[in-house]
Structure prediction request, 584 residues.
Amino acid sequence: MEKVISEAKKAFMTGNETVAWAALAAGAEVMFGYPITPQNEVMHYWTRLAPKYGRGFLQTEDEISAGFTVCGAVQAGKKAFTATAGPGNVLMQEPFGMAEAMRLPLLAIIQQRGGPSSGTVVYSQQEVTLTTFGGNGEGHRIVYSTATHQEIYDYTIKGFNTAWKYRFPTFILGDGYQAKMREPLELYSPEEKGIKMVETYPLIGLPGHIGEGREPQHLCNIYSLEEELYEVVMKVSAEYEAISLELIEYQERECDDADIIIVSHGVVSRAADDAVTALRAQGLKVGCFRPITLRPFPAQALRNVLQKSGAKKMLVAESAYGQLYRLVRQEIYGETVPIDTLFMPGVGIIDYDIMNKIKSML
Amino acid sequence: MERLDRVMEAYVGEYASGKSEIAINRALELRSRGRSVTLVDLDTVEPFYTLRTLKPLLEEKGLQVISFCKQDAFGLGETGAMLNPQARWALRRDGDIILDVGYGVYGARTLNLVEGAYESQELRVIAVINYSRPLTGSRDRIQEYILDLGRVDAIVSNTHLGSDTTEKIIEEGHTVIMHVARELGIPVDFVAVDESFQDSMGLDIAGIPIKYIHRYMPAAMW
Prediction:
């Protein structure tokens, strides 16, 4: 496979374009997709670049097929991915469920858009519930919520490794703003940074005969008996919980002595970070906590932050009407710190919005 | 009716090349000379991710801005592309006309939606090139890209890395862009440089005029 980035180099581009370059650098072999705003340029750039580097692309007839073709490709041992948003994310829940059931190393980039709707294309953070717990299953997924283009690049590369190492469907959760806005970032090849890409391997069509030197590959998506399903779900749940500790990622800042802790994720966490800087300069004891993995959620880390700070209040800020809020509450059940909220569905949140809210809480 | 005393420019270019930023700055520059200027947002696909949010500010500065705003939107979402009728007939307006031609790779073809664009003798099609964008990050790629755009009357050399820009980055990009421009026989109108470089020592940009620009677009998304 031809090397994509010969040496680390700064570039100026959109988030969608960043995904395409990261997938190339990570050695992705094929993308399956169906156009949808605001992820379209992931496909646009992938289709411009893929032929130059001998990689593949197929535009399927819809998102259901795009998801299932990724499921098929990874079973054949191909490093494959897709990207979608909004109603496309809804349609892909069926193949995502299959990937959960069969433990397929599927990677999907989700650029969240507004809802409820089939056609609204604007920014929002309203696909948190869908991406973390969508589908008819138990949310056995890994979801990274990025905040910068550098993170989109880093986590797309990492996402392939996470998917192939742990064999749970993995998601890079961006949004319409991250997809479209432009900022500088460093492009690099994983090897240059000492990142070893997990080798892909076929899951089916293996050499030899079952029972004669190898066990059957039991990639099952259908169970006929209740007890059968029970056993499988319990086993997978236990495996998921066992790896959760090593998967969890988060950031905290100025939390040690904070009276108020802001919890936010993704692009909104940049506003929270700026707000903390400004409020601290005004002598207010405010800190911020940002889950990077929304699944598995860094629950213990947030509990620890609440405990060490003795915070009197929490503020959950999101461009949605309570999706992160519900996640936070379920994950820190039992904590008694009052939670205030700043819900701005479909609307970007800037530092002033958070600062004003914090001041109203004092 | 041709009126050769006025400025009519269409800025085209690779996605995120700086078209909108250059178009805004150019329109304001003309306005500051007391001219009547209309800035036209020709992004028909995603009018919500463009200079829409800057419209009030730009109008306050004296520009006429043709762009969708909340009151004009009629809920097509992605089920249909929106062409503002005012944009279609923009070239028939009086005064200077600056077209910001979205969207994406094939955005330049949006020009065919503007009445009289291809027949106009006055209209200049200007490609905005940023060498720090990987797809226009080498001589070959820039050349291939410009040829792909179709008609290009001039180039704006717009190499930058946002907040990480250095003089070296600007000069290096400009050198490559100049090389391609000479090969293709297309003039470089000016080098766009962020205003924060105004006080720095002279950039070596081979005698091409510099225009210092203020960045408006970072405010366009929130």
About this structure: The longest strand of chain A covers residues 9-14. Chain A has two domains: 9-193, 250-361.
